[in-house]
Amino acid sequence: MENISGKTNDGVLTLYFKGRIDSSNAAAAEAEVNALREENKGCAVVIDCEELEYISSAGLRIVLRVRKDCPELKIVNVSSEVYDILDMTGFTEMIEVQKAFRRLSVDGCEVIGQGANGMVYRIDRDTIVKVYRNPDALPDIKRERELARRAFVLGIPTAIPYDVVRVGEGYGSVFELLNAKSFAKLIQAEPEKLDEVVRMSVDLLKKIHSTHVGESDMPDMKKVALDWADFLMPYLPADIFKKLVKLISEVPDTDTMMHGDYHFKNIMLQNGEALLIDMDTLCTGDPVFEFGSVYNAYVGFASIDHTVVEKFIGLPFETTSRIWELTVRYYFDGADEKHLELIKKKAMIIGFTRIMRRRIRRGGFDTEEGRAEIENCKKMLCELIPQVDTLCL
Predict the structure, then answer these.
(1) Residue 217 has what pLDDT?
(2) Neighbours of 367 (CB within 10 A)
(3) Shortest CA distance to 121 belongs to which of 90, 359, 113, 58?
(4) Are strands 163-167 and 283-284 parallel, antiparallel or unpaired?
(5) What does the DSSP assignment read for 350-380?
(6) CA dist list (Å): 9 to 46, 58, 132, 260
(7) What is the pTM for the complete model shown?
(8) Is the pLDDT of residue 115 over 70?
(9) Domains and CATH numbers, the chain
(10) pLDDT single digits (tens) 248-268
(11) What is the average per-residue pLDDT within 263-278?
(12) Are strands 12-21 and 44-55 parallel, antiparallel or unpaired?
């Protein structure tokens, strides 16, 4: 029947209601529903109403009879018009009903930020949207919203999403950022302001690192970094591997907040204030782990191919290298040159540990480029690790 179809996935039968279901076709619709349920006995049931235009009391009685056998029934992708019917008849009090997400296109939109989990686009003067790479990203969106809210309450300037939308086959979070511009765009337009912008970036980074989150479900970056190191056991000389694990293990445990993906495409300037986006990477740990990530964003990932950073951040390698140098210098204001060099080496150890593990896991040994990057990471770790006794900054 054209008004009813079904699909089963992972023990869930999704019934698709389409067009209009009323007294003229309710009997045929129910027969099709019953046939699909008979073919998929034992499956949980979800009713998808994305293409449903109208449902009468005769159609609602079908839903009630399904719910009688399936108490956990959910109705999803409900239009505003159909939702009003369900709400007026009391269905929203009996059954979990999820409204449909409005659809948004990012075709032709400017990319203003990107991270491990998604791309950030400017939709118009006032609005940006983060589009998630994972097509089943609703749990990720919920988590990022909670992390952003928590950071905001703790005094970290950030944008909190106010809407969830469908973008193609995936999902996105919508933020209001009036006339906001990423730090990367600022430097592209006015390179002479590099020093000023780096200082703003460092001020915000210090604010993040002075924030303690207490008990939290944020990832503990020390544990994450230990997993990176453990993975490298077969690929590093035994003495280097052993000392790497020891260095990370001895980093003090702390509930210090970290952004986890801190770079100029994830920092925006709005009305003279620096604020963060892409909050799904929030974590806790000693700042050395943050500096390892910062090093990778500006230098590490582009250490073999300098064009990588220009494609990612939109600035030449010479500029991002300078950003890295100034970030360390201004954050540790007053430290002598010898101490600054030691700090950079510690960050590089974390950075190359992550890159090496990442490249191996992504089939790096299968390509010449990958093998070169893995060998470079190994070389750098073998050079750097003997030079430090602790990763504490």
Answers:
(1) 78
(2) 12
(3) 113
(4) unpaired
(5) HHHHHHHHHHHHTTGGGSHHHHHHHHHHHHH
(6) 11, 28, 22, 35
(7) 0.79
(8) no
(9) 4-99 (3.30.750.24), 110-176 (3.30.200.20), 181-387 (3.90.1200.10)
(10) 999 999 999 999 999 999 999
(11) 90
(12) parallel
